[in-house]
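Q: I'm writing up a methods section and want to include an example of the input and output format. Could you take the sequence below and give the corresponding predicted structure tokens, formatted cleanly so I can copy it straight into the document?
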Amino acid sequence: MGHFATGVTILTTTLDEELHGMTANALCSVSLDPLLVLVCVNKQARTHAVLAESGVFALNVLTEEQEHLSRLFTDDAVDAAHSLTGLSCRRGATGAPILADCLAFVECRVVAAYPGGDHTIFVGAVEDAGVLREGQPLIFFRGAYGPSQEGRG
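A: Here is the clean output for your methods example:
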């Protein structure tokens, strides 16, 4: 599966006024009517239990300049890695944090959760979405980050 290029997002959620985030690239569109997306979250991830309890999340699509954010939210060795302390964000319609400088976002309410081996497949009904700025998406391919090739000779 490493030969399948994916975009990179920061999944954000909130519980008891605490903001949480994690890097996520196992996601896809499920349905247009109703508008549904899914995201797969490792059961061992710090954010898994928070998401399961809160029932809301936002997927913040990163630009190629935001690789540092993706790396920050994958590092379990950093105590504050999964909090949004110091990052500019606003609360969306569900209360989930929307990162201010991301390319786009999709905000969801969890409508179903299914076992998926060592992951849980969370299906979210889209409550809000938008494009926040122009830019190239951050791409992950064969274990490495790279820029999008769109528009490049």
